[in-house]
Amino acid sequence: xxxxxxxxxxxPYIIKMARKKAGLTQKELAARLETTDTVISxxxxxxxxxTVGMLxxxxxxxxxxxxxxxxxxxxxxxGLLERQAKTRRIMRLRAxxxxxxxxxxxxxxxxxxxxxxVLDILAGRDRESTRVL
Length: 133
Prior knowledge:
Elements: H1 11-21, H2 26-33, H3 37-44, H4 52-61, H5 80-105, H6 114-122
Helix pairs in contact: 2-3, 5-6
């Protein structure tokens, strides 16, 4: 799973997609990491956050590597932090929509209302508390 430089992807989404791409169940991934499937589930559902070290171990166990860039955003262009916040909300909505579609239909797909929610966020209309699903 190649994530482009400007994309901000939620950690739970990264973990779940890496595990699925590797063809592992939560229990199998947990065994590789010498932890429990409950911990993996908590990571994937965003109930708890892994350390960067644990995230590295997770993606390595799935046959991938993790690349993290840290930069001083105060030196970046104006409006960057606002655009990053919008991107995070969009990615969270996308992850929620895919998870709900998978729950309902057995496979990920974009749910109705997702595109409108993205357009609202980009236009500055905050849908933070609005569910798209």
